[in-house]
Design a protein that fits this description.
With 302 residues, this protein is of the alpha+beta class. The chain is built from 11 helices and 7 strands. Strands 1, 2, 3, 4, 5, 6 and 7 form a 7-stranded antiparallel β-sheet that branches. It starts with 17 loop residues before the first strand and ends with a helix. The mean pLDDT is 85.
Length: 302
């Protein structure tokens, strides 16, 4: 095994880029100071606690944890949960960030990473982003035993770059928040992300605006207005869209009945779910399942 590889080993954490992966029904990591890392749930669900704040991460989501941030993990589930965690060597992502935001002339003068601590918004992210599509083939590559040093380095560079780009996108959105001080905009951004985290962690429950706004430490009116401006849709529409995405994935991947999926995804009734699904995808849930199955068979034959 090349010295740059660290898979399911604590040796060299912080000094080299590392990967930890496990598939368990039950697993517990006590609170500790983490490295800058991506904690991805590829299947199942896990509870992640960051600085005392609990987040429910489900399949197709990941959580960013900062360097030296207090972190704990709990898996207690009837379904198998697969965690895939990326640990970056200290200075690795900082160098990518510095190279992204610093003029070339300054980079040539000093090749050292920016010594200032790079801080990311700790948050739940979904598979709609750019990070998970890079993680999933990486996990399959490791499992196949076909990993090479070149692919390892390329993947970590890509993941670090995608992480920086995702953070910059959040910062660009934060700049559009109407506030006189940058610190005020960043604090409001942080609170809105916490409200969204609550939506993503509790998407299969019936939620009230007051409950979500409370998680963001904002009044319901202020939260609703700021959330809509920041994410481009109301909290209700954001949650409805995410539930529909989850339902569509289950229709493609499972044999569970449409009625069961409707209830599990948090919709009030089957007719309500069917109408919303038809509006979003242009066909009924049952037709969507038949079409997906037919397309899957065609791809296998091809």
């Amino acid at each position: 095994m090349n010295a740059r590889y660290r898979i399911n080993s604590c040796d060299g954490l912080g000094l080299v880029n590392s990967v930890c992966t496990a598939t368990k029904h039950s697993f517990y990591v006590p609170e500790l100071a983490s490295l800058l890392s991506i904690k991805a749930v590829l299947s199942g669900r896990a509870v992640l606690t960051i600085d005392g704040r609990k987040l429910m991460a489900r399949d197709g989501t990941f959580v960013v944890v900062n360097d030296r941030q207090r972190f704990a993990l709990t898996i207690e589930s009837r379904e198998l949960t697969t965690m895939f965690c990326i640990f970056f060597a200290r200075g690795f992502v900082e160098d990518i960030w510095r190279s992204t935001v610093t003029p070339t002339s300054e980079l040539l003068d000093d090749s050292r990473p920016d010594p200032r601590q790079t801080r990311f918004f700790d948050r739940v992210e979904t598979q709609t982003g750019s990070v998970l599509p890079s993680l999933q083939p990486f996990q399959r590559l490791i499992a196949s035993g076909q990993l090479t040093p070149a692919r390892w380095d390329e993947t970590f560079l890509r993941l670090g770059t995608e992480l920086v780009q995702a953070q910059e996108e959040v910062l660009r959105r934060a700049q559009k928040i109407p506030a006189a001080k940058t610190s005020t905009r960043l604090e409001l951004c942080r609170r809105l992300l916490r409200g969204r985290d609550f939506l993503l962690s509790s998407w299969d429950h019936r939620l009230k605006l007051n409950d979500v706004a409370r998680q963001a430490c904002l009044s319901p009116y202020h939260f609703h207005r700021a959330f809509t401006r920041f994410f481009g849709k109301t909290p209700h529409h954001f949650l409805s869209d995410y539930r529909l995405e989850r339902a569509a994935a289950q229709l493609r991947l499972s044999e569970r009945s449409v009625t069961e999926l409707s209830a599990d995804c948090g919709f009030e009734s089957l007719p309500s779910f069917s109408n919303l699904f038809q509006r979003r995808y242009g066909i009924s849930p049952r037709e969507y399942r038949r079409t997906s199955a037919r397309n899957s068979k065609i791809r296998k034959i091809g």
